[in-house]
Amino acid sequence: MTEHLLPLAAGLAALLVAATLVWLLSIRLDDTSVVDIFWGPFFLLQAIVYALVTPDRGFIGREVLLLVLVAVWSTRLATHIAGRNAGTPEDHRYTVMRRKVGAAWRWQSLPRVFVLQAL
Question: Which residues contact 110 (CB under 8 A, 6 or more apart)?
């Protein structure tokens, strides 16, 4: 049973670390919208972690194909969103939340936006 929990725990830990790093970047940029760019790459991170910690099932080609497909999709999505958001103000969804919460937004955005997007 624990062999099945290891990939889940490792994937969750990697996502939480990545979400925290992206949150720190958002604080530096003062723009919560940056999380949208990383939504696709969070999937890639999880796929890589699962591939690394899951015991070999015997057919590596399927794992490689899956990783390549997820990498292409997540890179395309991140590039598209980054290009769309370049030079624009923070997304209105986050601006509304920021106004409602006030000065505490900096801390509340971590669980309310970044952890949820990563999960």
Answer: 19, 20, 23
Residue 32: CB atoms within 10 A of its CB come to 24
Residue 32 pLDDT class (50, 70, 90 cuts): very high
Q: Amino acid letter at 36?
A: D
One-letter amino acid of 94: Y
pTM for the full model? 0.88
**Contact in structure between 41 and 83 (CB atoms under 8 Å):** no
- For position 6, what pLDDT does the model report? 84
In 3D space, the residue among 40, 37, 76 whose CA is nearest the CA of residue 29 turns out to be 37
- Judged by DSSP in three states, 11 sits in helix
Alpha helices in 86-110 (DSSP H): 92-101, 105-109
Query: How many Å apart are CA 112 and CA 57, to the nearest integer?
Result: 37
Place of tokens 């986050």: 94
CA dihedral (91, 110, 2, 53) positive or negative:
positive
